[in-house]
């Protein structure tokens, strides 16, 4: 039964004159959103739960509850027709608009700590007083017409604490009225407990929190506004998906810790300069080592063993924290010992001698446990090499030599297995079955083969040109039993980064903008995509690894470490360096320490101000520039490499237009 309520008791009513641009309010196109099922989330950092916002713009609450709205004279429910965007393009404050006749309804959703907490500042940063929080919805109705108009709004909470709120106004031309709904994520016994809390105060506290947090992080600003905002949104995604310091893949889906995802996610936090979050997140890896030394988060899947070791190594490299390396090295070594034992289980006359045993592999869609997975071997080889580096840094020369010899023998076994296949590329399994995944991680996140290894090039060509017809919408295919027509953007990043390391800058730029295409208007990413229906599979938006892989792709297009070298601008669009454009990087952590870089395009070329990292200066710094954009002046200690100009201009409008031009 609907309950009539007092508007002034349950919402704040404001009637005020506004100056209305009718064309701006009614005629503009909705921002581009790739997805038919465009989800998002409003939530707080490190809380175990977030309030997911459905494609139809209902807000999901605890215990199967939901907050939904109807608007206009006929109380029309919100739907997918209203496109969600994020405040400033990246904050977890969702914005959407609807129109009924001359009345426009502007919706704003966000989350705050419960106003009853003792210290709201601390509660924004951590669930200091429990996991419950407050979802706010502010709706402003504006009469854009020349005559008085009636406006109606209905807000309904279903599930525990069910309640219906009705609002109505008579609006003079050019005036607005606002209603506010406050919905605790977990229903409280007293639903009106926070009715007197001012929305403007709590919205300001919310935006101040996120702005201050990002102000203290590394700053990356590029000429593409969509890319800059999406990078910030990616950082927010990690922090909301994180549960009390443990990085999870999603909020409300895949809501658990996966080493496969978490290794890249924590790298994203490190490179963002969010050092306190990274320090908490890396501890989760240490808790996932089995008694036999193997790291595991997914039962009997062996890539996690190498991924965890790499994550520990990467944390040391970017922080320079030797004491921390001393602490974790024994666990790295135990993981290496497991690899050494496991790859000797097969008889010497086996075609899989020297490789890891057969195992399940969900990325490769091989669930029977009867296949040998190259990606598992690649990751465990990478883990061995990271442990070698750590041992050398700690003065454990004997151990380093032993592990380096083990890595050499492991590589020989991989080479021998590949030769028996008589194919030019690395397959998903040594039996040649499955879909591509870990076998694409050849040069990224650290190279385990030479950049000019013909097998790397052949693998790139296989997935781009041949596998199930090749790339679709600039994106790699993933072909499993449940998703026969899927593409998989974030998994394709591994191939993109292999091209980046190989010097194929123009391909990287193209991939980058196709990746951006497959995002929501609020700059969130999916897992896989059923591209024929523009649907993220299993409603996996916002996907934290999808966001993290975007952040790393952008960062490494600008700054990339390889061994003792630091490469600058190795794969950026030429137009980012054009006259009047600017790239600004501040407080960016690298393996060599923090650095700053300011690039300004002028008529004559590019002006660069560079503050290099000083903690452990790289042996070589390389600046990559197109022939048409020469360096003005000189940079001490920096080698300039000029490359050919890119043949095609890629930006976000261009990729959107191209997408629509190729639709049947």
Notes on the structure:
The structure is a single chain. This protein is an alpha+beta fold and 664 residues long. Among the domains are: 208 residues, no CATH class; 252 residues, no CATH class. The chain is 33% helix and 21% strand. It contains 16 helices and 27 strands. Helix 6 packs across helix 15 and helix 14 packs across helix 16. The longest helix is centred in the middle third of the chain and has 25 residues. It is globular, with a radius of gyration of 26 Å. The two termini are 47 Å apart. The N terminus is likely disordered.
Structural class: alpha+beta
Largest sheet: 6 strands, antiparallel
Average of per-residue pLDDT values:
94
- Kindly provide the radius of gyration, computed on alpha-carbon positions and rounded to a whole number of angstroms: 26 Å
Shape: globular
Distance between the termini: 47 Å
Report the total helices: 16
Sheet with most strands: strand arrangement: 1-13-10-9-8-7
Beta-strand content bin:
15-25%
In the predicted model, the low-confidence regions spanning at least 5 consecutive residues are: 1-27
Give helix % range.
25-40%
Number of strands: 27
């Amino acid at each position: 039964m609907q309950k009539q309520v007092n508007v002034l008791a349950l919402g704040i009513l404001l009637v005020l004159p506004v100056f209305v641009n009718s064309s701006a309010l009614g005629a503009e196109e909705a921002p581009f959103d790739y997805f038919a099922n465009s989800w998002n989330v409003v939530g707080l950092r490190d809380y175990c739960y977030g309030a997911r916002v459905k494609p139809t713009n209902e807000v999901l609450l605890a215990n199967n509850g939901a907050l939904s709205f109807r608007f206009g004279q006929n109380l029309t429910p919100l739907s997918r027709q209203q496109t969600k965007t994020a405040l400033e393009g990246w904050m977890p404050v969702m914005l959407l608009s609807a129109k009924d006749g001359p009345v426009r309804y502007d919706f704003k959703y966000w989350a705050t700590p419960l106003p009853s907490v003792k210290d709201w500042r601390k509660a924004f940063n951590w669930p200091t007083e429990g996991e419950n929080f407050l979802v706010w919805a502010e709706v402003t109705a504006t009469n854009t017409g020349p005559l008085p108009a009636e406006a109606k709004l209905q807000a309904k909470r279903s599930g525990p604490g069910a309640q219906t709120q009705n609002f109505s106004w008579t609006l003079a031309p050019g005036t607005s009225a606002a209603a506010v709904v406050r919905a605790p994520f977990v229903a409280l016994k007293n639903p009106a407990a926070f009715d007197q809390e001012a929305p403007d105060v709590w919205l300001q506290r919310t935006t101040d929190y996120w702005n201050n947090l990002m102000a203290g992080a590394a700053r990356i600003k590029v000429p593409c506004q969509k890319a800059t905002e999406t990078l910030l949104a990616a950082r927010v995604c990690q922090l909301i998906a994180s549960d009390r310091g443990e990085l999870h893949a999603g909020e409300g889906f895949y809501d658990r810790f996966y080493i496969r995802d978490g290794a890249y996610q924590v790298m994203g936090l490190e490179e963002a300069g969010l050092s306190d979050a990274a320090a908490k997140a890396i501890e989760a890896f240490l808790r996932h080592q089995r008694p036999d030394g193997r790291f595991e988060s997914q039962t009997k899947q062996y890539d996690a063993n190498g991924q965890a070791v790499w994550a520990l190594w990467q944390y040391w490299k970017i922080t320079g924290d030797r004491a921390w390396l001393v602490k974790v090295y024994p666990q790295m070594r135990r993981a290496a010992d497991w690899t050494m034992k496991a790859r000797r289980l097969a008889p010497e006359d086996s075609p899989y001698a020297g490789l890891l045993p057969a195992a399940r592999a969900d990325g490769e869609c091989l669930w029977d446990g009867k296949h040998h997975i190259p990606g598992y071997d690649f990751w465990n080889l990478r883990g061995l090499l990271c442990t070698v580096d750590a041992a050398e840094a700690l003065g454990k020369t004997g151990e380093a030599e032993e592990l380096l010899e083990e890595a050499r023998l492991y590589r020989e076994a991989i080479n021998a297995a590949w030769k028996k296949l008589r194919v030019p590329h690395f397959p998903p399994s040594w039996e040649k079955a499955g879909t591509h995944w870990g076998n694409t991680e050849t040069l990224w996140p650290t190279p385990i083969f030479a950049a000019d290894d013909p097998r790397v090039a052949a693998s790139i060509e296989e997935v781009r040109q041949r596998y199930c017809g090749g790339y679709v919408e600039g994106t790699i295919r993933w072909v499993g039993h449940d998703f026969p027509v899927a593409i998989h953007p974030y998994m394709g990043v591994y191939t993109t980064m292999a091209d980046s390391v190989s010097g194929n800058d123009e391909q990287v730029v193209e991939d980058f903008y196709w990746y951006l295409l497959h995002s929501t208007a609020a700059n969130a990413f999916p897992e896989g995509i059923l591209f024929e229906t523009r649907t993220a599979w299993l409603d996996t938006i916002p996907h934290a690894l999808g966001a993290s892989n975007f952040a790393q792709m952008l960062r490494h297009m600008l700054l990339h470490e390889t061994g003792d070298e630091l490469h600058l601008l190795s794969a950026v669009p030429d137009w980012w360096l054009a006259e009047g454009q600017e790239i600004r990087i501040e407080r960016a952590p690298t393996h060599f320490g923090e650095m700053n870089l300011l690039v300004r395009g002028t008529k004559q070329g590019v002006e660069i101000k560079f503050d290099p990292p000083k903690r452990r200066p790289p042996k070589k710094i390389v600046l990559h520039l197109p022939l048409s954009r020469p360096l003005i002046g000189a940079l001490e200690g920096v080698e300039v490499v000029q490359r050919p100009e890119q043949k095609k201009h890629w930006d976000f409008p261009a990729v959107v237009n191209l997408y629509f031009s190729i639709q049947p």
